[in-house]
Amino acid sequence: MVMDIRHLRDELAGRDSGEDMLSAVHEQTPGLMDWLVECAAASDPASQARLVAQLRLCVPSDEGIALLREAVGAGEVRSLLAAQALGHHRPWLDAAAGVRQHVALARSCTDSAVVAALVWGLRQRDEAAEFIAHSDPAVAREAALATPVSRRTLSPILAGLRAGIRPEVERILLHKLHQIHPSLVRYLVDLLVEGSWSEEALRCLFASLPQMSLFELFLDTRQPASWALGDAEGARLWQRLVRLVTSVLVERPGCELLRHLLSRSGDDEAFARRHSAMLRDAVRRADADAGADLVGHLERLTFGASEDKVARLAQSLVDLSARLDGAAVNKVHSLLEQWKSLSADIKINIYNLEQVIR
Amino acid sequence: MGADRFAFTQAEALLSQLDASRSEAHRSVLGEYLKNPFLDDDVHALALRTDLSREVLAPVLAEMRDAGLLQSAGRRGHMLDAQAIDSTPDGDVAEPQSAEVHDEVAVDHPGLALAPLLDILPCGVALLDCDEDFALANEAFCRSLGLSADGLNAAQIAERVGGDLRVEVGGKPVIIDVEKNVRVQLRSYSTEAFDGVLATVMAADMGWEVSRAQVQIQEELFAQLRNEVAGPAGFLQSFLEKPKKSDLGVARAAIERINACLALFMLDDPPDGNSVS
Fold first, then answer.
1. B132 Cα to chain A: minimum distance (Å)
2. A–B CB contacts, 8 A cutoff, strictly below
3. Out of B10, B79, B86, whose CB is closest to A50?
4. How far is Cα of residue A327 from the mean position of the Cα atoms in its chain?
5. Is there a contact between A183 and B247 if contact means CB atoms under 8 Å apart?
6. Contact flag B215-A5 (C-beta cutoff 8 Å)
7. Contact criterion met (CB < 8 Å) for B91 and A46
8. Using CB atoms, which residue from A5, A46, A50 is nearest to B211?
9. A171 CB near a chain B CB, below 8 Å?
10. What are the tens digits of pLDDT across the range B127-175?
11. Whole-complex ipTM
C-alpha cells in the first residue's frame, strides 16, 4: 500500500500546533506566494534560479493551489511563473473538478505564454487536445506535446491534421501517432470518414502509422470497415485508402513489414500469390541495412524448408541481391548456390531470375 | 523580442559563460529549459520537443549535466540546475550580507578559509570557536535562528541555542531543540585550518525536502503502476467485454506485463503454490 503524503505536512501542522503557533510560524517563514513575487521581481538569473528551485521543492496545499490559480488569473508579471508552478505541482489532477478548473483557467487566459504554461500542466491528459487548434503557435505546440494518443484525443488530433496546422505541430502529432497502440488504428481509420482529406495529408498520416497495423487492416483483411459497405461513396473512399496505403507501404517498407511478408509468403502460397507484386516492389525499395537483415531472415526461414517454399522466396532473395553490396552480397550468393543444389527445377528458376535482374 | 528568441539568447549567454559546448542542439535544449524552468522532461519528450534524435540528444544532455547546467529529475528526467546559474560570473553568487559578516569578525581567524564552502551549502551551518568568540555562519543559519548576520559571534549563537557550547560538545554530536521545528546539532570539528564546533540547523526545511523526495518517488511509482498495470488491465477489461481472436496475443502480452510489474515489487504468487486457486 502506498500512502499519499502530499498533504501530510499541512495536516500535521494543523493538528499538532495551536493557531497562534501556526500563525507565528507563517509570519516567520516565507511562503509560496512570497517566493513567487520575489522570483517575478528578481533582476538577476541567479536569484531567479534559486527561487525557482525553492518553488520546485515546496509542496503546495489546496490553499496554495488556489493562490497559484488566483495569481494566474491576476494577469500580472507573476502569472507565468504561477502557471508553470501549477504545472509542476499537480495534486489538482487527482480531482475532476481540479482539472476542469485548470482547463477553464487556460481557456479564459489571454496571455499566450501563460496559456502555453497551463497547457503544459495538462501533459499526458486528454484535456490538452482541445488546444491543438489554438491560434497561438506556442500554445498549439505545447498542446501537441502534452496530448496523449487515446480514443478521446484521436478526433481532435485528426481534425488538426486535416485542417492544416503548423509544420512543427504536425511533426509532433505525426510522431505521436507513430507510436499509436495497434488496437486504436481501426478506430482512427473509422474517423477518417468524418471530413474531407487531401491526398497529401492522408499520405503523411499513413506514413506515420504503424505499417503492420495498416497492412493487416487494409491489405490482409477480407473485411473492409462497416462504413465502406454502406454506400458507393464509402466503398470509393475505402478503395482510395487501400490504394494510398499500398503506395505508402511500398515506398518506404519497414523491416518488420518485410519480415512479415517474407514469412507469410513462405508459409502460405495463397498469401504469396496475393501479395507477390507488393512484396517484389517492397523488397526492391528496402534500404541496405534492412536488406542485410532480411538475408539472414531468409536463411533462417529456408533452413530445412520444402522446395516449394524455397522457390517462392527465391524471387525475393534475387531482388535483394541487387540492393546490397559487400559481405551481404557474398552471403546472398552463397545462399543462392545452396538453394540451387536442392533440385534442378530450383536451379533453373534461380538462374532465370538472375538473368532478368542482370 | 519574443519569448523563444529571448530564451535562446539567454541560453547562448549561459553557455558562453560556462565555457560549455555551444552547438545548436545545446542552445535549443537549454532554451527550452529557460523558457520553462520547471521543465523536467525525459530524453524521449525532449527529443520530441526539440526535434533532435535521441542519439544526438543523449550526449548533449550528458555534457550539460557534466557542465552543471542540468541535473537529474526522477529516474529519467532532467531539470535546470540552479547551482550552475548561481556560479556564472554574472550571477549574484557572493552574498553581500554574509561577506560583511566575514569582514567584521576576527579578520585573520583561520576558520575564514571555510567561508566559501559555507556559502554554497543549502542548509544552515555555522563554525564556532568559543575560545576566541569567533563565529562564521551562512545566511541559511542566520535566517533559521533569526539572528542578525552583522557582528555575529559565538556568544550570540550560544545564547540563542541555549547553554555553553563547549560544555555541550564533548565527543558525540548533541542535538538541541531551539524551538518547534528547529533543532541544532553541535559536534566537534577539527581541520588543519580550524578547531572548534560545527553547528548545523535541522529545520523543518530539511523535513520538507525529505517529503519532496518521497513525493517524487511516489509519483514515479504511480506512473509505473499506471503504465504497467492500469493500462494493460484496461485493455484486458475491454478484451473480456468484446473478446476477439486477433487481440488474444495482445491480451497475453498485457498479462505478462502486469505479471512482470508485480514480480518487480515481489507481489507475484509465491512459487510454492500458496495462491488461491
1. 31
2. 88
3. B86
4. 36
5. yes
6. yes
7. yes
8. A5
9. yes
10. 887 777 778 888 878 877 888 777 788 888 888 887 666 655 556 777 7
11. 0.74
CB contact under 8 A, A25 and B181: yes
Three-state DSSP class for A347? helix
Close Cβ partners of A258 (under 8 Å, ≥ 6 residues apart)? A282, A283, A286, A290, A294
Nearest-CB residue to B82 (from A9, A53, A138): A53
Which residue numbers in chain A have pLDDT < 70? 1-30, 43-45, 75, 222, 356-358
Distance from CA of B63 to the nearest CA of A (A): 20
Question: What's the pTM value of the predicted model, to 2 decimals?
Answer: 0.60
Residues of chain B with C-beta less than 8 angstroms from the C-beta of A87: 36, 38
Buried b / exposed e across A260-282, counting CB within 10 Å, b at 16+?
A: bbbbbbbeeeebbeebeebbebb
| CA-wise closest residue to B8 among B24, B19, B20 | B24
Residues of A with CB below 8 A from B36's CB? 84, 87, 117, 120
User: What is the distance of C-alpha A48 from the center of its chain?
Assistant: 35
Alpha-carbon distance B86 to nearest alpha carbon in chain A (angstroms): 5
Q: What's the 3-state SS for chain B?
A: CCHHHHHHHHHHHHHHHHCCCCCHHHHHHHHHHHHCCCCCCEHHHHHHHHCCCHHHHHHHHHHHHHCCCEEEECCCEEEECHHHHHCCCCCCCCCHHHHHHHHHCCCCCHHHHHHHHHHHCCCCEEEEECCCCEEEECHHHHHHHCCCCCCCCHHHHHHHHCCCHHHHCCCCCEEEEEECCEEEEEEEEECCCCEEEEEEEEEHHHHHHHHHHHHHHHHHHHHHHHHHHHHHHHHHHHHHHCCCHHHHHHHHHHHHHHHHHHHHCCCCCCCCCCCCC
Decide: A147 and A176 in contact? Cβ < 8 Å.
yes
Could you report the per-residue pLDDT of B204-241, keeping only the tens digit for each? 556 666 777 788 788 888 888 888 888 899 889 989 98
